[in-house]
From TrEMBL, chain A:
<protein>
    <submittedName>
        <fullName>Uncharacterized protein</fullName>
    </submittedName>
</protein>
<feature type="region of interest" description="Disordered">
    <location>
        <begin position="1"/>
        <end position="67"/>
    </location>
</feature>
Automatic annotation (TrEMBL), chain B:
<protein>
    <recommendedName>
        <fullName>DUF4352 domain-containing protein</fullName>
    </recommendedName>
</protein>
UniProtKB/TrEMBL annotation, chain C:
<feature type="signal peptide">
    <location>
        <begin position="1"/>
        <end position="27"/>
    </location>
</feature>
<protein>
    <recommendedName>
        <fullName>DUF4352 domain-containing protein</fullName>
    </recommendedName>
</protein>
<keyword id="KW-0732">Signal</keyword>
């Protein structure tokens, strides 16, 4: 490969030398400027020094102390870049997830205590049962919890906050079970709903028998405010303005 | 500025050859364009099909079985209701279960199989569009499973006092499976660029009178 | 000339390395996850009779049957008598499932039958979903035993797997990397043929809705 190379003598290419055979053809694209050339920008004073040469940037002059440090730096940068590339979408996804499902604010109360939250007081009574009238017998590893939930409006605002609560049965380790409201005596209209009068929800839940004594009954009061004689549009606008989250949970231990 | 040396004859001929060639090319293009040769080739005209014909719709192989007028006793003792039914034998050639869907109505596009029924002449309008289902002995369904042939019925309720037409003509489209850039898109109605879905077949079905229950 | 040879070799080596790296970079793209891959479900697999736990749910396929028709059991509340029998041009595959939740109450989404040929059959809509595994809430502490029913051509049975996943949570988000359980039903050609030849005329789905 290298043997076939031929060396050529140096040859002037610019400015073009007049050739004998050119016969009037000129390749000069524009007339030459006759005046003296403009002064060049001043050359750097002192001996010409390419920056970096002295510091050993050229491969020809190895600097054993600098290279491993730089390799380590590059590896660290690569690892960091990878970590950021993985972490940012994950974090973003998690934040989106959390925005859609904010953490509950759990307020825990001892058995039989009355909890007051947002102008309403709540009370829970639980009764265990092995079977329900008119139902087939229960499997031996399960137990019914018959829950009586009492709500009392403390003032007119408590009457406005008479939306149906969500009820759930929870174990302290995070497991939970469904609870269903089967009956209630809560009046529909504000006129019938009296401040200070207790109203009830009857709730039913099926839990493992072994855990029946350990679970707590968790009530999530509705943040919905029912204002009498309000148009639907007004109520939608007001709800959007108030933007109250349903993230408060009152847990009653057994 | 001087030109390179050359014979007098060559010098005279050269300025002619290039302009002439250019002129011929331009004239050719112009004539082609004038005659419509640069327009997009027109699509194949829709196939004209009749009862019993089979159409390959990409995602489905569809046989147009028949169209029939039926009468059913009205609910709650009301007057009898009249329906126009169109019957298809549909085989899902895709890899996934899909639905019978619904034809488009009033500018709203349809979806799934019945979305390919682009237009019916005469048009029968109703609030919720026709009832589309898979007919079987017993419980009807709304799914088209891969590799299975299903009898799909599109049932239009005729407005009170309206007689069923003597025949219906359906404009039928086909489905294509475009390659998604980052994810599967699934089957879409075949279209010309961004135009409306292409009518692949026009199916004319005479309406058979039937006093079914 | 002798002096320039190593330099040229080095340049050739550099070019080659560059070409190899470029090729490798292009080739690596074919291993890159598509959007479907990296937001697709996380799958836990198992066989017939095994308990497979997929973060939120545990599922066990306890039996497989075939039938030519499905009848809903006596169900108070629905219109009694006619119209409760479902038929198919293929065959009904009934998979007995047991499911429980690992923490909080869940519901099972309509299962999918994944066949050897790569087809995905959704659970049939001809039977009342309340009578299948999609009906009840599954909760920690006990197993819910219900069936999943598919309509398939008999030829697709061999090698089929059932895919079970919990319903999307509320919040309206499409969840990436949602858990799912995939169970091989253990049907080889012979077992599939036997299943079809011994298919019951009518399979009755038991239980109250």
């Amino acid at each position: 490969m290298s043997g076939e190379r031929r060396a050529f003598p140096d040859r002037q290419v610019w400015p073009p030398v007049a050739r004998e055979d050119s016969g009037g053809a000129s390749t000069q694209p524009f007339p030459a400027v006759r005046s003296a050339p403009l002064p060049r920008s001043a050359p750097p004073p002192g001996p010409l020094e390419i920056p970096g040469t002295a510091r050993g940037d050229l491969p020809a002059s190895p600097a054993p102390a600098g290279r491993p440090a730089r390799t380590a730096l590059r590896v660290t940068a690569a690892v960091l870049a990878l970590a950021v590339a993985v972490a940012v979408p994950t974090w973003d996804g998690y934040m989106t997830y959390k925005d859609a499902r904010p953490d509950d604010r759990v307020h825990t109360f001892a058995a039989g205590r009355t909890a007051t939250f947002q102008h309403v007081s709540w009370k829970v009574a639980v009764e265990e049962s092995d079977g329900l009238p008119g139902d087939r017998p229960l499997e031996p590893d399960r137990r019914w919890l018959r829950i009586r939930l009492t709500r009392t409006a403390l003032d007119p605002e408590g009457v406005i906050r008479r939306g149906i609560p969500d009820v759930e049965v929870r174990h302290p380790d995070g497991r939970s079970w469904m609870a269903q409201i089967t009956e209630d005596d809560v009046p529909l209209t504000a006129a019938e709903h009296r401040v200070g009068t207790p109203y009830h929800y009857d709730v039913l839940s099926l839990v493992p028998r072994a855990l029946a004594r350990e679970v707590s009954v968790c009530v999530r009061p509705s943040s919905f405010r029912t204002i009498e004689n309000e148009s639907f549009e007004d109520s939608m606008k007001r709800t959007a303005r108030e933007s109250e989250l349903n993230d408060n949970v009152l847990c009653f231990r057994r | 500025m001087t030109s390179p040396p050359g014979g007098a004859a060559t010098r005279r001929r050269r300025p002619v050859a290039v302009p002439v060639a250019a002129l011929v090319a331009a004239a050719g293009l112009g004539i082609t364009a004038a005659l419509g040769g640069l327009d997009e080739a027109p699509d194949d005209p829709p196939r004209r099909l009749g009862p019993g014909a089979v159409l390959d719709q990409g995602e489905f192989t569809t046989r147009f079985v028949e169209s029939r007028a039926t009468t059913r006793p009205g609910r709650y003792g009301g007057p009898d209701k009249r329906y126009l039914e169109i019957v298809f034998q549909v085989t899902n050639k895709g890899d996934e279960t899909t639905g019978v869907g619904a034809p488009g109505q009033g500018g709203k596009p349809g979806y799934f199989f019945a979305g390919s029924l682009l237009r019916m002449t005469p048009e029968i309008r109703s609030d919720f569009g026709p009832d589309v289902f898979v007919q079987a002995d017993g419980v009807p369904g709304k799914q088209l499973h891969p590799g299975m042939e299903s009898t799909v019925v599109v049932r239009y309720e005729l407005p009170e006092g309206r007689r069923p037409p003597g025949q219906v003509r359906l404009d039928v489209g086909t489905f294509e499976h475009p390659e998604g850039f980052t994810q599967e898109i699934g089957w879409l109605l075949a279209k010309d660029d961004d135009g409306p879905p292409v009518v692949a077949a026009q199916v004319t079905l005479p309406v058979r009178r039937k006093a079914a229950g | 000339m002798a002096r320039s040879a190593p330099g040229r070799w080095r340049r050739l080596g550099g070019l080659l390395t560059g070409a190899v790296l470029a090729t490798a970079a292009v080739a690596a793209q074919s291993f890159a996850f598509s959007r479907d891959d990296y937001s697709g479900p996380l799958t836990w697999t198992g066989g017939l009779g095994e308990t497979v736990t997929a973060s939120r749910i545990s599922v066990r396929a306890e039996g497989v049957h075939a039938a030519r028709a499905i009848e809903a059991g006596t169900s108070p509340g629905t219109s009694s008598g006619t119209g409760q029998r479902a038929t198919t041009k293929g065959i009904f595959l009934v998979v007995d499932l047991a499911a429980t939740s690992t923490r909080v109450p869940q519901r099972i989404a309509p299962p999918v039958l994944l066949t050897e040929s790569g087809r995905r059959y959704a659970a049939t809509d001809k039977v009342n979903g309340d009578l299948t595994i999609t009906g009840p809430f599954i909760q920690w502490g006990w197993w819910v035993r219900k069936a999943a029913v598919f309509e398939v051509p008999p030829a697709e049975l061999a090698g089929a797997r059932i895919v079970v996943h919990p319903q999307e949570g509320n919040g309206g988000l499409i969840e990436p990397s949602a858990p799912e359980v995939e169970i091989d039903l253990g049907l080889d050609e012979a077992a599939a043929a036997r299943l079809v030849s011994t298919a019951k005329d009518v399979h009755t789905l038991a239980g109250k809705p």
